Structure formats: structure tokens, C-alpha cells
Amino acid sequence: MPAEPRTKEPSSNPGQPLRVDWLGSVPYRDGLELQEAAMADVRVGGADRLLLLEHPPVITLGRSTDRAHLLEDEVALAARGVAVEEVRRGGDVTYHGPGQLVGYLILNLRLRGAVDVHRFVRDLEAALITATAALGVKTTTVPGRTGVFVAPEIGRPTQKIASIGVGVRHWITYHGFALNVDVDLSGFDAIVPCGLADVTMTSLAEQGADGPLASRAREAVASTFGRAFSNADTAVIAPGS
């Protein structure tokens, strides 16, 4: 039975700023380098960061990935322009592509007085639930599963709208979440998403959210994460600004 959205205060420090950057479309390996640079800056006292971006089509294999969950040969995937990358985040296999909002949250948990990684993941879920609600889509969590799911209806399979996979090094977080905005969901056909065979993937667009979804999703996430992780609304900083 789905759990009620968690409403406890996120593990945030009101005095700790959060800078949000919209980076546009970024190749996956370049995204890893951007995270490393942000982590190095945060480690020496720079502001915590939320890097918002999209990736060209790529399948990523987390530390817990069962290779059986990759349903298509890597050579065939490459021929279709889909890269496959092994990464150091938690979780199983997932897909990234255009129309999906990826957020890499680079936080110094120790400075925030919060060194509980499981709590941090729960806080990510709560922030995403608030953001999707602002876009008119009711979401929730599912006990024993990480991520954000569409509120259930009788006779409908469990639908996942946002995946979460994080890493922590020296108590600084990296990686983060992927929110399906108007992504082509057929990209998930080559995998068992997150290793959950009984779950289908969905998106804000499929759930009826309308308007300029890409910009609305960025704004909702930036505002929600600003309040959740710094107790202040946070504007998205455009590329090059």
C-alpha cells in the first residue's frame, strides 16, 4: 500500500545557500565532470548546488544493477545512438533522454548537521512530491522502493515518474534524481527500470500536465528544492549567466 507523502522537515540548514543552475543538454560524461567540479567547490566552502540538465539518450548502470535488467545488447543500443555507462550512484539501471529533467544535488551533509543518507533520500522524494503537485500531478512514495510514483488507482499498474540514485563522498552528495517531464517513454523499453519488473514508467505529460512543461518543471523543482534545502525560493540561473 503506498505510503503517505512524508511531511517532516527536510535535513536542511536555513543558513546554507543553494545555487540552482540550468545547464541545458549535457553529454553524460560531461555531466559527471561538472559534478566533480561542483563537489570540489562545495568541499572547500562553496555554495551547495543543484545542477539541472538533460542528457542525450543514455542508459546508466548503478552499483546495484543486475545485468539481466539490460534487455538489449550494448552494440545494438550504440547503433541506435544510446550510450551505456556504469556509474557510482546507488540503485539499478535507468534511462535518461531528452524531455527528462535530471537534477544533480551537491550538498555538504556534514555542514547541514545531517549525515543520514537514507534520510536525505527521503527528503529528495518529499521535495519531488511537492514539485509534481505544483504541476498538477499527485504523487507518492511506495514502501520499500526508492523514487516517486503516481498516486495509485484501482486496476492500474504502479507507475513511476521520478527515479533517485545518489552517491556520497566525504559527506558530500552527488548524482540525484530524474523526473520524467515529456520524455519518450519508449526509451525505457530496453531495460527493467530500476529493476522493478512490475512497475511501468510514466511522465508529467502522460499524466495530463500541460503548458510549457519543460520550463514549468524547472521552475517548480528550483522553487521546491530552494525551500526544502535552504528555506528560500531559488531561481534557476540560465546557462552562461
Overall description:
This protein has 241 residues and is of the alpha/beta class. The protein has one domain (18-237): Bira Bifunctional Protein, Domain 2 (BirA Bifunctional Protein, domain 2, 2-Layer Sandwich). 24% of the residues lie in helices and 29% in strands. The protein has four helices and twelve strands; from the N terminus they run E-H-E-E-H-E-E-E-H-E-E-E-E-E-H-E. The protein has helices spanning 28-43, 74-79, 117-134, 213-230; strands at 18-25, 48-54, 58-61, 83-86, 93-96, 100-106, 139-142, 145-150, 158-169, 172-180, 199-201, 236-237. The strands form two sheets. Strands 1, 2, 6, 7, 8, 9, 10, 11 and 12 form a nine-stranded mixed beta sheet that branches. The N and C termini lie far apart (45 Å). The model is unreliable at 1-10 (pLDDT under 50).
Task: Provide a compact summary of the structure.
The protein has four helices and twelve strands, in the order E-H-E-E-H-E-E-E-H-E-E-E-E-E-H-E.
Give the name of the CATH architecture. Answer: 2-Layer Sandwich
What is the overall silhouette?
Answer: globular
Instruction: Count up the helices.
Output: 4
CATH domain class name? Alpha Beta
As an assembly, this protein is single chain
Q: Estimate the helix proportion, in percent.
A: 10-25%
What is the CATH superfamily label?
Bira Bifunctional Protein, Domain 2
Mean pLDDT: 88
The number of domains is: 1
Order of helices and strands: EHEEHEEEHEEEEEHE
Low-confidence stretches: 1-10
Which band does the percent of strand residues land in?
25-35%
Structural class assignment: alpha/beta
How many β strands by DSSP? 12
End-to-end Cα distance, whole Å, is 45 Å
Largest sheet: 9 strands, mixed
- CATH fold type: BirA Bifunctional Protein, domain 2
